[in-house]
Automatic annotation (TrEMBL):
NDH-1 shuttles electrons from NADH, via FMN and iron-sulfur (Fe-S) centers, to quinones in the respiratory chain. The immediate electron acceptor for the enzyme in this species is believed to be ubiquinone. Couples the redox reaction to proton translocation (for every two electrons transferred, four hydrogen ions are translocated across the cytoplasmic membrane), and thus conserves the redox energy in a proton gradient. This is NADH-quinone oxidoreductase subunit N. HAMAP family: NDH1_NuoN_1. It catalyses: a quinone + NADH + 5 H(+)(in) = a quinol + NAD(+) + 4 H(+)(out). It is found in: Cell membrane; Endomembrane system; Membrane. The chain crosses the membrane at residues 15-31, 36-57, 77-95, 107-123, 129-150, 162-184, 204-229, 241-263, 275-295, 302-322, 334-355, 376-398, 410-430, 451-475. Its EC number is 7.1.1.-. Pfam families: Proton_antipo_M (PF00361). GO terms for molecular function: NADH dehydrogenase (quinone) (non-electrogenic) activity; NADH dehydrogenase (ubiquinone) activity; quinone binding. The keyword Ligase does not apply.
Length: 488
């Protein structure tokens, strides 16, 4: 491996975050101050974001380092900023919850930072072995976070299920990678794409590899039938960890999946079989997620099935680009992921605030929330309306862009299924809003969310409002990131 000094600069966002995660561990060992630990974590995220923005401003095109194992392009930088935003919002929303329920403050924040590093690597590598290592760096801290409610049997159960199912999905993914290496003799995605020009159409090894890779990443994005882990783990894990799973893990899974399938040219040898497999998964994911979410009484389980349904929508946009080798679908996918991340973080900020104030996580615990905490209920309702795709919220525009792109790329029947599922989603999102604003409150008191949660909810709500009015601008920002995937 030939090392260049510039390589360290290209690695600076991840490297700085690893250093700050180690600093968090040291501070926890000697200081034992939750406020200091959370502050150091936020500083680390800001430093990493500074390096990421610096790379975006000073480097154009595609930069490679460490023998092509690290790649810095607009696609990677786009996702890195999303992951850093997720981690920063989680650091704010988890502050009171961790002190009240988890107790292990240093461990929680260090795991949050290490998992974020893994997510950043998942978006910024085009080499199969490095992708797998990044996936494990992302997942192992999440396994631990799921079981951090040490006196709660549901949390222990969630951690065990997450470990077992995660190990199985990693093995399936690795087997798919191994088939690609055995067929092409390289683990570099660009090399794999070049090798496919010499392979006959309909090669069964490629088809099997595609399906295995879809199954492996399907676990990370909680797509049906690889979704079975999500509801129990979302319900049993600490609520801030659940929020992190729902956006961070899913966004990282899609970042790697899209990179592998598009940049690796896996649609060159046989596109029809893989498109059929993706389409079946997308329809099952949307339909099961929405139908089962509509009958949930626990809000965390409802959000779990909601996130499953959202993964189905994202697949609809990706399938169009995969089938036609055009960037429009992936541009709308990136914009949809951005809006989904912000919206879901805001919704979970409201859920965490309610859990902190009342100890309840059932939908009925939201009764009369408007009278008890107007600001909390308004922010949460706006986020739920965006998730449902109600105009003129940002979530409406993300669906308009996604479904329009998919329709123009020949996936009209998938768009119709997605629209019908969007109607179903109004049932459970609307039920929470109805309970908050029209039911009598459980108690006649006032609920005041903490500063961290209030700040997180305010930031996400303001971001949604801004995106609502300049949605096209953000879509234009996502377009170069999507187009880079076709430049092999």
């Amino acid at each position: 491996m030939q090392f260049q000094p510039i390589d360290l600069y290209l690695l600076s966002p991840e490297l700085s975050l690893v250093v700050m995660a180690l600093v968090v561990m040291a501070v926890d060992l000697f200081v034992k101050s939750r406020r200091v630990i959370a502050g150091v974590s936020l500083v680390g995220l800001l430093i990493s974001a500074g390096f990421t923005i610096s790379l975006a401003l000073t480097h154009t095109g595609t930069q490679k380092a460490f023998s092509n194992m690290l790649i810095v392009d607009t696609y990677a930088l786009f996702f890195k900023l999303i992951f850093l935003v997720i981690a920063a919002v989680m650091a704010l929303t988890s502050y009171e919850y961790v002190g009240k329920y988890v107790k292990a403050t240093g461990e929680f924040y260090a795991l949050l930072l290490f998992s974020t590093v893994g997510m950043m690597f998942m978006a910024s590598t085009t080499e199969l072995i490095t992708i797998y290592i990044a996936l494990e760096l992302t997942s192992i801290p999440l396994y631990v976070m799921a079981g951090m409610l040490r006196h709660d049997e549901r949390s222990a159960e969630a951690a065990v299920k997450y470990v077992l199912l995660g190990a199985m999905s990693s093995a399936i993914l690795l087997y798919g990678f191994a088939l690609l290496y055995g067929l092409t003799g390289t683990t570099d995605l660009a090399g794999i794409a070049a090798s496919f020009s010499k392979i006959a159409q309909g090669n069964m090894v490629v088809i099997v590899a595609n399906i295995l890779i879809l199954a492996g990443f399907g676990f990370k994005i909680s797509a049906v039938p690889f979704h079975m882990w999500a509801p129990d783990i979302y319900e049993g894990a600490p609520t801030p960890a659940t929020a992190f799973f729902s956006v961070g893990s899913k966004a990282a899974g899609f970042a790697a999946l899209i990179r592998v399938f598009m940049f690796g040219g896996l649609n060159v040898v046989d596109v029809s079989t893989t498109v059929i497999a993706f389409s079946i998964v997308a329809v099952l994911t949307m339909t099961l997620g929405n139908l089962v979410a509509a009958v949930q009484s626990n809000v965390k389980r409802m959000m779990a099935y909601s996130s499953i349904a959202q993964a189905g929508y994202i697949l609809v946009g990706f399938i169009g680009s995969f089938a036609t080798n055009r960037p429009e679908g992936n541009s709308s996918v990136l914009f949809f992921i951005l809006v989904y991340v912000i919206t879901n973080l805001g919704a979970f900020a409201g859920i965490i605030a309610l859990a902190n104030l009342t100890g309840g996580e059932r939908i009925e615990d939201f009764r009369g929330l408007w009278q008890r905490s107007p600001s909390l209920s308004l922010g949460t309702a706006l986020c739920l309306l965006s998730l449902a795709g109600i105009p003129p919220m940002a979530g409406f525009w993300s669906k308009v862009f996604l479904f329009s792109a998919a329709w123009s790329l020949g996936q009209s029947w998938l768009v119709i299924v997605a629209l019908l599922n969007s109607v179903v989603s109004l049932v459970y999102y609307g039920r929470i809003i109805k309970v908050m604003f029209f039911d009598k409150p459980v108690k006649e008191d006032r609920l005041v969310p903490t500063m961290g949660l209030s700040t997180a909810l305010l930031l996400t709500t303001v971001a949604l409002i801004v995106i609502t009015f300049v949605a096209q601008v953000f879509l234009n920002v996502a377009s170069p990131a999507a187009s880079i995937l076709l430049a092999r």
